[in-house]
């Protein structure tokens, strides 16, 4: 059971050099004792490439994406990126994917968001084939992936694990059958246990797959300025209240809006919530939005997470 953090996209985008900033943040998190750092995909930087650079620059640090939407992307191209990053980091990369969303797929990329579950199944089938065999000849209903040349990257072993930000029943079933685990976000411990861990584990068992990784992303920060943190959390998470998949798990978690699931308070509160998530079946707890208040609060949050990580390893 490990503990990680998401690197702040606002800090990366607003810096003089996004790559330098990401490396510096990753090094600081690792120095605090955090075992992994994760990068969300933006319309600016490329998360897979940036994860590779951070992982290569910071020895021993596990890196991942949380998550790259499959919208407007092809499994052969993602496989090439993932293998390159896996080779660059010496096997310390986890590929986190997401289904994407209609409001991006159609007006932004000009694609279709029809049949997302079928596309997820076909995308994962083709992607896993490339990562494990170095080639693919897949012809599905929503995509074709046929490699006329070898598609393996030397040194990309073992194949990068694939996690999917799946939270709905159908997506969890496909993820349990074809991926290595899930990346849920904005879900409380009880809802995680009942509506994420149970169905994906059952799907993996039916498919003869190993027990899935449950890498839960939890927004939160250690701070004495609770009011400021709550105001920032409300502003940053309101976006998710209107996305159906998130609205569902927020409601299942007993909350009326996403901001209520942000963990804000002292070290004891953070430690207690981390323990609750592990007890609910998480295999990794990753804190997001640790920059809600000040850089000092963020560093303290990482230190607390590092202390918790060391106590579990010890």
TrEMBL record:
Q: Name the domain of life.
A: Bacteria
CDD domains in the record: Tetrahydromethanopterin_reductase (cd01097)
| Pfam families xref list | Bac_luciferase
Tell me if Oxidoreductase is a UniProt keyword of this record: yes
> Which Enzyme Commission numbers does its entry carry?
1.-.-.-
Q: Which UniProt keywords apply?
A: Oxidoreductase
Q: Sorted alphabetically, which InterPro entries does this protein's record hold?
A: F420-G6PD/mer, Lucif-like_OxRdtase_MSMEG_4879, Luciferase-like_dom, Luciferase-like_sf
SUPFAM superfamilies (alphabetical): Bacterial luciferase-like
Looking at the record, the residues that make up the Luciferase-like domain are 12-283
Broad class of enzyme this protein falls into:
oxidoreductase
GO molecular function ontology, one term from the record: oxidoreductase activity
Q: Which named protein is this?
A: TIGR03564 family F420-dependent LLM class oxidoreductase
**Organism this protein belongs to:** Nocardia beijingensis
């Amino acid at each position: 059971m490990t503990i990680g953090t998401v690197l702040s996209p606002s800090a990366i985008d607003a810096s003089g050099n996004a790559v330098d900033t990401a490396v510096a943040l990753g090094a600081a998190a690792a120095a605090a004792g955090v075992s992994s750092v994760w990068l969300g995909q933006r319309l600016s930087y490329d998360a897979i490439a940036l994860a590779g650079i951070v992982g290569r620059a910071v020895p021993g640090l596990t890196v991942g994406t949380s998550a790259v939407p499959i919208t407007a992307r092809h499994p052969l191209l993602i496989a090439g990126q993932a293998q390159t990053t896996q080779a660059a980091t010496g096997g310390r990369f986890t590929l986190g994917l997401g289904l994407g969303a209609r409001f991006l797929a159609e007006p932004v990329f000009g694609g279709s968001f029809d049949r997302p579950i079928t596309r997820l199944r076909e995308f994962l089938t083709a992607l896993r084939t490339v990562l494990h065999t170095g080639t693919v000849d897949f012809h599905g209903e929503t995509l074709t992936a046929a490699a006329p040349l070898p598609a393996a990257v030397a040194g990309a072993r073992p194949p990068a694990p694939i996690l999917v930000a799946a939270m709905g029943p159908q997506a969890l079933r496909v993820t349990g059958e074809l991926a290595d685990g899930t990346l849920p976000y904005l879900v409380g411990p009880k809802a995680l246990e009942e509506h994420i861990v149970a169905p994906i584990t059952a799907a993996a068992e039916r498919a003869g797959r190993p027990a899935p990784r449950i890498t839960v992303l939890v927004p939160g920060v250690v701070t004495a300025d609770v009011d400021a943190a709550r105001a920032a959390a409300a502003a940053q998470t309101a976006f998710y209240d209107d996305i159906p998949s998130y609205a569902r798990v927020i409601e299942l978690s007993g909350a009326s809006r996403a901001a209520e699931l942000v963990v804000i308070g002292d070290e004891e509160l953070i430690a207690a919530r981390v323990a609750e998530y592990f007890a609910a079946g998480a295999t990794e707890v990753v804190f997001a939005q640790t920059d809600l208040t000040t850089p000092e609060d963020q560093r303290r949050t990482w230190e607390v997470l590092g202390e918790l990580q060391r106590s579990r390893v010890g």
